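User: Please predict the structure of the protein below. I'd like the answer in structure-token form so I can feed it into my own downstream comparison script.

Assistant: Understood. Taking the following sequence of 687 residues as input:
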Amino acid sequence: MRKLIALFLALAWIPALVLADEGMWTFDNPPVKQLAEKYNFTPTQEWLDHVRLSSVRFNDGGSGSFISPQGLTMTNHHVALGQLQKMSTAEKNYVATGFYAATLDEEVKCPDLELYVLQELKNVTARVQAAVSAGLKPEQALKAREKEIAAIEQEYKDQTGLKCEVVSLYHGGEYWAYQYQRYTDVRLVMAPEQKIAFWGGDADNFTFPRYDLDMAFFRVYENGQPLRTTHYLKWNAKGAEEDELVFVSGHPGSTNRLSTYSQLERQRDFLYPQRLAMIDKQLEILRAYSSRGPEQARRAARSIFGLENSRKALGGEYEGLLDEKLMAKAKAQEDAFRKKVNENPQWKKEYGDGWDIIAKVIKKQNKNAEQNIYLSTAQSSRFARIAHQIVFYAAEVKKPASERLSGHHDSQLEQLKFRLFSPAPIYKDLDEATFSGMLQLAVEKLGAADPYLQKVLQGRTAAQAAKEMIEATTLDQADVRKALIEGGSEAVARSTDPFIVLARQLEPEQRKRIEEDKKNTQSLLVPATEKIARARFAVYGKESYPDATFTLRLSYGTAKGYPMNGTKAPYKTSLYGLYDRSLSFNQQGDFALPPRFWERKDQLDLSTPANFVSSNDIIGGNSGSPVINRNAELVGLIFDGNIESLVGRFVYDETANRAVAVHSAFMIEALRKLYDAGKLAAEILGE
């Protein structure tokens, strides 16, 4: 990894200039110039609108797309994993066995899956910035900004009926109102066994060559009928040729490419070490729980999968931050940027102190960083988080909408209640194991005398507190949660549920912390980052893209291999390679194939491409994104990046940074010949 990072440095950290096939571009500012110059392709507005309206955000944390006029959507199996597990039982495990509904009547409704489709984008920068009048104190300015954002979201919702989110781009340089059509009646159509969806397991995760069938299909319903979708991606079973131009339309979660040097130092010195240590502890707890039996292993499987995935991704990112040359390059680029600002008297006056303000705030944050992360273990229980939401909801809804905390504005309540009222099972024994283990960690780090922990423990050990509270709670029942929400503050005040009681006790201190964070951190950071954003526009213009924010983005690149381990990785793999790799590991462990792959091997065309890589710029959140060609035809399904791409949170270079996708041909071959899902394949192909 360190050798690879060195290759990036010649091209990295240049905010003024976008190089190579770089960028997660917003649909209001697509890379038209770059595409025309490098690929002689200019997407029309009609093309962009069609791709945008065919793209879907899975609020479980991934991306997807419409692929038929009957509301059929596609994403990754690992994006669908949470819903698959929530629909499963000990007797009926969709994660292990897979699922296929041959008819509409057999499709299974997901308990709490929300899909968003971006309908409109409106630039509201001037309106948000105008809300902050001259002379306001920082905390007053923050409140005015938040009040205006809440008003915009409610106004657009009232006007259009769409879900509106005001998004900060370029770290406050712009504000946009993203308006979504929200769908909550979503039903499972097909998913293969996790064994083949995550084939190769953690060993192959973030690597290439790969052979995964990481796909899942859902159908959106409206008024009890399949949604009629006028915008969907037509399927191209031939896939992408080597060096062919391809696009990825999806929802990358977050990047730190525009962060200041002091922010990167905080990530390196505090946040990453803490997060990695917490993940290691959580994995230790969950693996011990899983060892109790097969049902416990099933219940913990999704959490373990997510944590292992995060551990590997964060480890690669952290290694990038530890690279002295990379950090030195970041510092040099920031110094050059600040020099340009300071050489212009007007720019220096308006923007020059932004970096120093951020650095001072970060020093204050670092003082309490360790304490804050261990105090958060009081929320490591699912029941504690639910109780927190209920207690805060009951208090916030009594206030005028403009004075509520973020997440409790009128435009946000529907989504909050949808999650709270989910009928998905909550396993008490799993929650007890997690809560007990993380509470014990907090006790070891902070001491049982810590005032915050005393409210939780009340003289008990961590294990006793977790056991007694979880045995007594009824918050695992959706109707109980609904009754508390509908009963409001009076019902919450009367409740004797131990987690509601604890949440009431913790509420004053939590509110104090929120207010202190707003006053001492957010009220200073927000205007400072806005200054730097405006400085960047002044110095470099808007010929670049903002950091990722889990909003819809378009990236471009080509299907091509890359140098790897002293040799070269091909741009694609085939089913021949899948069987060869399985046999090379004696069909053991994560390299064992599901029985159907051996039983029907002779029916398959083993030359069928399995996975492929492209130079598209992606990151977590892009999972499930469609890969399309110039004709907006679907040629693949993003499911991963290679190990060399992990440093892409901070820097991108197309030398070896690759997005990994399932080939369109593999999916059709598998549906028809392995899963007896010819009807689904025909719908996808428009036959």
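That's the full token string. The longest strand covers residues 174-183.
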